[in-house]
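Hi again,

Forgot to attach this to my earlier email, sorry! This is the prediction with S-adenosylmethionine bound. I've pasted everything inline since the attachment limit keeps bouncing my files.
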Amino acid sequence: MDSRGGQRVPFCQVFHCFETDNHMLKAAWQRLPDPLRRAASRLTPEPVRQIATRSWVVPVNYQHRDPSNAVVEAAHAVKVAEMYAELVRSYGQSLQGLRILEVGPGTHFGPQLLLADRGADITLVDRFVAPWDAGYHPHLYGQLRKLTGPSRALDAVITAQGYPRECLTIINQPAEAMTAVPSGSIDLVLSWAVLEHVYDLAAVCRSFARVTRPGGVGHHQVDFRDHLHTDRPLEFLLSSALRAKIDFSYRHGERGNRRRPDELVMLLKRAGFDRVDINVTEEASPAYLADFLPRLRAARASPYRSWPTDDLCILGAKITAWR
Ligand SMILES: C[S@@+](CC[C@H](N)C(=O)[O-])C[C@H]1O[C@@H](n2cnc3c(N)ncnc32)[C@H](O)[C@@H]1O
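Structure tokens for the complex follow:
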């Protein structure tokens, strides 16, 4: 029973929320004094932790999609494919036969099919692979086919109403444990708006190092903002590690894992990438930082309380890592 602040939460009520909703448990948990919370957290057995952080939120990739967006999304897919092709050219490589692994491709595989058409050997890895949606994907790929003209990969997918193995290799595994991708088998690893969502960034960096051939490269666009408040992009750094962990599990990481650019660079180097470059694409405004920093420095429970300001400023970056 918790009696902090004069408000009592009967144990049966706490127990009931295991079966129905974990909001009440979280509320009761928040009312515990901090030292007690930390001690309880250390003592809580894993099965109880699992139930307490169980989520009813459906991952974005499993949600039903609106076919009326197909025109806009097809046009965007063409741009993304062109951007990836340009990236490959900038590394002095050709798409023909290039072994590309993209982690976290999202709700459809339009750009990747266009690259497969141009000779690339594409593997996709996702923790929540978007299933074929008969009410959406045929519209999207049909629209893409209209934009691009003849396409072996799009034709094969539209005919099969799914993804034939000769077009794409699709692996339903988290990047942390993508055991289905052979070691040293990849020339180029791509991720776009993914590394801020993974649950174990160190393990992901080790996976990338394992699958990348010597001389291969990784290119990662990372959005370091709090995805719940992109207009107040560092707010999630104020909470304790435990609270952030519960929030992360509840939303399948969609709010962001809070890891900062310096951490990512360090983890990639530690995993075995010889050179890691960071190209900053977005920074926090001075006005927001002036408001946020005093609050962060006073946030006793936050592991980011003393984090260097120059790293906190970075909200978006392209990271390139050479093996
Ligand atoms: C924000 S979406 C980005 C989708 C796409 N790259 C884009 O830019 O539109 C994040 C993607 O990463 C995937 N993802 C999240 N955690 C992952 C993990 N641990 N391993 C592999 N994929 C993950 C999600 O399922 C989703 O497809």
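The pocket of S-adenosylmethionine is lined by residues 61, 103-106, 125-128, 174-176, 192-194, 197-199, 253 (CB under 6 Å). Confidence is low (pLDDT under 50) at residues 1-21.

That should be everything now.

G.
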